[in-house]
Amino acid sequence: RSQMPGSIDRLDELLKRHKNKRFHLFAAQANYSYAFGFIEDDDKNQALILYHKAYKHGLQALSVYGVTAADLTGKSPDLRRKVSSLPKSAVGALYWTSLSWARMIELSQPDIFQVSQLHKTAILMDQVIKLDANYQLGGAYLFYAVYYASQPVLLGRNDELAMTYFEKARK
After folding, report:
1. Is the predicted pLDDT of residue 146 greater than 90, yes or no?
2. What is the maximum alpha-carbon separation in the chain?
3. Distance between CA 33 and CA 26 in Å, rounded?
4. Cis link prior to 110 (omega < 30° from 0)?
5. Nearest partner of 160 among 171, 144, 140, judged by Cα
6. What is the secondary structure of 87-142 as a DSSP string?
7. Torsion angle, CA of 139/141/124/107, rounded to 10 degrees?
8. Closest by alpha carbon to 151, among 162, 165, 140?
9. pTM as predicted
């Protein structure tokens, strides 16, 4: 816990000098992991800042593949079409952008606009599964397990589907 802020600062310094997809992915993963593992339980506002930072780094990595913030906030069919043609090398950018965006939305409740965007995180994770279901030890399956188990019934809660994804993640 004590080492992460310094490591994140060093990554930020590297990114000032070297704009590169791999560094953005490292920064997305570091910010997300620090927020999720150490900050969120004690300071939701600070966690939200870190998730937003992770999202921005993920988006920078996605921009290498031509995916922009406007694509993410645009129409769902257009986003699905855009990400469906991405190569396997985009998996990390898709995964970390989706994961951090989902946590941002979760912590931003009851912001209805943010909640209305949640299904778009699933569009990105769909592509992760299509390209490399084993990325981050099947983390996309765990994402879906939580996604379907945590939704209100009116927004698509599906406990059976959640259990199916938990089982896939476990395997």
Report:
1. yes
2. 48
3. 10
4. yes
5. 144
6. -GGGHHHHHHHHHHHHHHHHHHTT-HHHHHTHHHHHHHHHHHHHHHTTGGGTHHHH
7. -70
8. 162
9. 0.92
The dihedral through the CA atoms of 139, 58, 76, 132 has a sign that is negative
What's the pLDDT tens digit per position in 50-77?
Answer: 999 999 999 999 999 999 999 999 999 9
Instruction: Name the burial class of residue 140, with classes exposed (0-12), middle (13-18) and buried (19+) by CB atoms within 10 angstroms of its CB.
Output: buried
Short-list 151, 90, 99, CA closest to 121: 99
Q: Which two tokens stand for residue 104?
A: 């941002």
| Identity of the amino acid at 151 | Q
Looking at per-residue confidence, does 153 or 60 come out higher? 60
Measured CA to CA, the distance from residue 171 to residue 169 in angstroms comes to 5
Count the residues in the chain.
171
Structure tokens at 159: 């406990």
> Tokens standing for 144?
């879906």
Q: How far apart are the first and last CA of the chain?
A: 29
Task: Name the pLDDT band for 169 (thresholds 50, 70, 90).
Answer: very high
* Tens of pLDDT, residues 6-31: 999 998 898 988 888 899 999 999 99
